[in-house]
Amino acid sequence: MSAAFDEPLQAAMVDLVFPLGGHSLPRDSAPALRVALQRELPWLDQEPQAGIHPLKLVPGTDAEALLSQRTRLFLRLPRERIDAAAGLAGRSLQLGEQAVIVGQPHPRELLPHRTLYAYAVAAEADDEIAFMQAMNDELQGLQVRSQVICGKRQQRDWPGGALTTFSLMLHGLTQGDSLLLQEHGLGRHRLLGCGIFVPHKSAAAVGE
């Protein structure tokens, strides 16, 4: 059985991918990135399913992480917002004491895969059992059936308060359910990079 489907449906959401120019960012830049993007795209808060993917950075110092030439900003947006968000190209985003320059974007379609992975899904409490029950309730509300595997727990001390997250893998999805989960996500704080699902080839890396 292949990881993807032969004739994928078209999703209502799209990932808009921007190159980033700069040297370094705060190691945990999600809150500052959200604020900077909300300033440039004031409609972002009006799109409950919009998300900002976690940035992939290179380890640097205890306080900073380094940008590589391959670092990209991924925004998960409704299809009708692509043109408005593309206006970010050429702008400078100030994240703490560092700034990044946003390059020309290109859209990336969401494709249905049988296995999806989220690096971080926000939990309402530290307890894994309670978290899994909440996830099962959300999946039931979406009428999605899947094998659910809980992975790494992380504690994030952000300016707005501490937040517990767990990585999460969903396996055995149908084509429609896979796209629905990528469009909808799970949990809260999508603009902080939480609850955003991407295709994954194997369930082996859920603890990463």
Tally of helical segments: 4
**CATH topology grouping of the largest domain:** Alpha-Beta Plaits
How many domains make up the coordinates? 2
From the alpha-carbon coordinates, what is the Rg to the nearest angstrom? 17 Å
The CATH first-level class of the largest domain comes to Alpha Beta
* Gross morphology: globular
Q: What class, by secondary structure content?
A: alpha+beta
Q: Which percent range describes the beta-strand content?
A: 25-35%
What is the arithmetic mean of pLDDT?
89
Outline the biggest β-sheet.
6 strands, antiparallel
Unreliable residue runs? 203-208
Order of helices and strands: EEHEEEEHEEEEHEEHE
Query: How far apart, in Å, are the first and last alpha carbons?
Result: 24 Å
Total DSSP E strands? 13
CATH architecture of the largest domain: 2-Layer Sandwich
Helix content: 10-25%
Please explain how this structure is put together:
The chain is an alpha+beta fold and 208 residues long. It folds into two domains: 13-109, Alpha-Beta Plaits, CATH 3.30.70; 116-205. The chain has helices at residues 30-40, 82-85, 128-141, 175-184; strands at 13-21, 24-26, 51-52, 58-59, 64-66, 72-78, 92-95, 98-102, 106-109, 116-123, 147-158, 161-171, 198-199. Strands 1, 3, 6, 7, 8 and 9 form a six-stranded antiparallel β-sheet that branches. A four-stranded antiparallel β-sheet has the order 11-12-10-13, with helices on one face. It has a three-stranded antiparallel β-sheet with strand order 2-5-4, with no helix packed on it. A hairpin with a 2-residue loop joins strand 7 and strand 8. It is globular and about 45 Å long.
